[in-house]
Amino acid sequence: MAVDLLGGDHAPAVVVDGALLACQADPALKLLLVGPVEAAGEVLAALDPADRGRVRSLAAAGTPVSHPAHAGWIESGVRAAVLAVAQGNADAVVSAGSTGATVTSAALGLGRWPGVRRPALAAVLPTVAGRMVLLDVGASVDPDEHTLATHALLGAAYASTAHARSAPRVGLLTIGTEPGKGDQLRRVAAAELARLDLPGEGRYIGLVEGNHVVTGDACDVVVTDGYTGNVLLKGLETAYATLGPPGAPDTVPPRAAVLLGVSGTVVVCHGAATGPDLAAGIALAADLHRRAAVNAIAALMSARSTHEVSDEQ
Q1: 118-254 under CATH 3.40.640.10, yes or no
Q2: Is residue 35 very low, low, confident or very high in pLDDT (cuts 50, 70, 90)?
Q3: Please, which contacts does 231-237 make with residues 24 or more away whose CB atoms are closer than 8 Å?
Q4: What is the pTM of this model?
Q5: Strand ranges (E), the chain
Q6: Is CATH 3.30.450.20 correct for 1-116+261-313?
Q7: What is the pLDDT of residue 40?
């Protein structure tokens, strides 16, 4: 796993803590720490001598010793991590840095899937009924209806593949369930989603509201724009941390999102992530890679595209 040491509000210290926790929790895990060599050395020094071979370091270009104030230097960490995956030197990227920088670096460095113009960040939320996929949570803050339709396709494929949802139900988040509710984007997008042939035998169930995101009884995937999704996600996570999550506490998913639509496994953590949050993000990336989940999602999307072309002919 290529881990961006400079990603996050409290980097590199919090990333060092997360890397150590991840190594301790998963004896098979191997890390490539990208950023200040001194920070990577802290991880190595804290590990048992027998485990130090599991951690390597890569100094990103322009990386200073301490946490930088210059945004370009911070970006260099995630760019180098993405390059490591592109060159086959790592299997996944984990960063708590700038979402925009991570999404752009991944799209340019790894390439986007055919038909995906704007990748989506998908988070998994605990609900009363189980788990729910919410996307987008920050990659596309001002999308059009075609982007929301692509997000619905990605969400259905993700729920079907990574979370074993049979015929996942997909809903569009708005302010009411009656037809025509919402702003112009939501009204146009609803018609667009209704025409989709969703992967994994998924089906569009119509409009959903914020309460459905908590109960989880109406759908398995909720589609929205990145601005709304990010606001909703942070509000819910704060509520869960303060009041407790719906469902069983031991089934709370990691506070991290996977970037769907790029040719590689990329996990984005919050800028305010703690050490345990970073460790959970690293564990999520490792799990997705080991199950070849991203390749499986891409295959579902590709099969759907091929089917559409065949039908048109």
Answers
A1: no
A2: confident
A3: 232/134, 232/137, 232/173, 233/123, 233/125, 233/134, 233/137, 233/138, 234/270, 236/125
A4: 0.89
A5: 2-4, 31-34, 55-58, 92-95, 120-126, 131-135, 169-173, 203-208, 221-223, 256-260, 265-269
A6: no
A7: 81
